[in-house]
Write a structure and sequence with these properties.
This protein folds into 3 domains: 6-147 and 279-316, Periplasmic binding protein-like II (D-Maltodextrin-Binding Protein, domain 2, 3-Layer(aba) Sandwich); 149-278, Periplasmic binding protein-like II (D-Maltodextrin-Binding Protein, domain 2, 3-Layer(aba) Sandwich), CATH 3.40.190; 364-589, 3-Layer(aba) Sandwich (Rossmann fold). 38% of the residues lie in helices and 19% in strands. It has 19 helices and 21 strands. Strands 1, 2, 3, 4, 5, 6 and 13 form a 7-stranded mixed β-sheet that branches. α16 (477-490) runs parallel beside α17. The radius of gyration is 33 Å and the shape is elongated. The protein starts with 5 loop residues before the first strand and ends with a helix.
Amino acid sequence: MPGRHASHVAVSRPRWPRRLFALIVVLGAAAGASYVGRDYLPEPVRDIAERFLADDGGCAGTVSVDITASPDIAPALAAILEEGSAELPRIDGACIETAITPLASAEMAATIGPQSSVDLWVPDSSMWLDRMSAEGIELGEVTSIASSPLVAVASEPMANQIGWPDTEFSWTAVLSSDGPPATIVDPTSSSTGFATLLAAGVALGVGTDAADQLAVVGAMTALSQNVTPTVEEAFAAADQAPDEAPVFTAIEQAVARHNQASFNPVVALYPAEGTVLFDYPAIPVGRPDTPLAVREAAGELVAYFSSQEAVQVLHQHGFRSADGTAGANVGIGDNLDPGPVQALPALPPEVSRELVSQWTALSLDMRMLAVIDVSGSMIETDGTDQSRAELVQGAATTALALLPDSSSVGLWVFSTLENTETEADWRELVPIGPLSEPVETEQGEVSRLEALGGAAAQIPGIVEANAPHATRGWTGLYDTINGAFNAIKDGYEASKINSIVVLTDGADESPPGLSSDVSLDELLAMIESQDPTRPIPIIVIGIGEEADMDALTEIADASGGSAHQALDPADVQEVFIQAMIDRQCRPMCG
């Protein structure tokens, strides 16, 4: 099989001279010297021959078992099978033949199915079982055969800067903007990255009422902008530039293996909160057509991988025992801690899936137009010490701080005839473009990020000016969304997620003598006619009870976006942050 790590036929070591003579005597007495070939022996004599051959190490046929294993443990499994050939049991006299295919656990979890040839799967972690959706396969009992904790890895100079070995290390240090530079492997394709995301989620309280959504989004946004292609490249960076290399995550076994071969050893940092333990489960995989003999052989292999002889080989390859015990001869010593490791509590599968969805959303490049209602009703305070406009300004400012520099963002405000020069219901405060790009403002040239912050600060003042105005106190909602949709469509960037975020506290309303150029039905028809290969999701946020959520929801649904309502205007910030996630997730996630 292409790409297989090793193939092996288990054969016992026979004691041929003495027993071969006995076998010849039996065969000669029973069938005569002419029946020396097995295929020509009478059935009773053939049975006797097979028993003699089995007793002496010969194989009465073979049972083939295809093993797919995580690439880090595949060499150890090959070594176990090479050293233990004589120890494997027979299946009705047949020897067990194995072939090992190294394959990343994420890839296997995504492709395993009825057409797979694998009979025994050894991923690096049971966490992949929660992400499998294949039908037509039967997973047998899960048996952990080894373990290795996830650790943060730093070059020795960087570890000294952090305060190692005297300072306690934590996951929050990895996630903090004040901490050392850190990088992560993509969680959607890497076990290490996925485990790091789960560990970060637990540390931030994801899945609990105490979780700070702002902190979660901020941490994931920061991590998503510092992705390394592979763990191997992160180790290489620590080798080549130890004074500058960022902290990254890897399993302890990889650290031990690296330090045995490198002139620049790295340090394994064990977070105080605990960590994710890779448990290397051996899992028999059955299909409707899997022979009983193959199922039995897979079970015997699982048992052998758990034997004391196998554990010794796993220790030699840098792994801990299934119970977390480190071996004395695996290179765990300098820069590693062979002591017990505290495991973090597991997140429920639905929470871990949500984390991955949020990561996917926040790591994608975006092109977003924010469209904010500045009609007179936005001056209302709803019994708080801040107006709706001031709450929206605060939410927008917070959201800007979470956006990566690669984002392209623009800002419009709208009411009715907001732009008196063009008689449009909207006015552009900042044109769409990269946050780091310089733009001209009344204060001179600044970055677009600074310009957006300054424009957001103007919103309460614009609302105050509009509140007593006979025309601009109304809400030109449909015409504005129509204009924003066409603006995004005209400048569409296929490499980014192109979206519109609308914040309003009302319904489409025009003053006496004026009417919208576009009706709701016409707006919906225009949105629904968009090219499905160039989606423009519209995410709408209704503020307070007066927001026309029926119409807003229709608009969002027609575009593939989402609708949110902040019944309490004080919740605008939380809702805005959720809209940032949905802005990108809906078109990608269905």
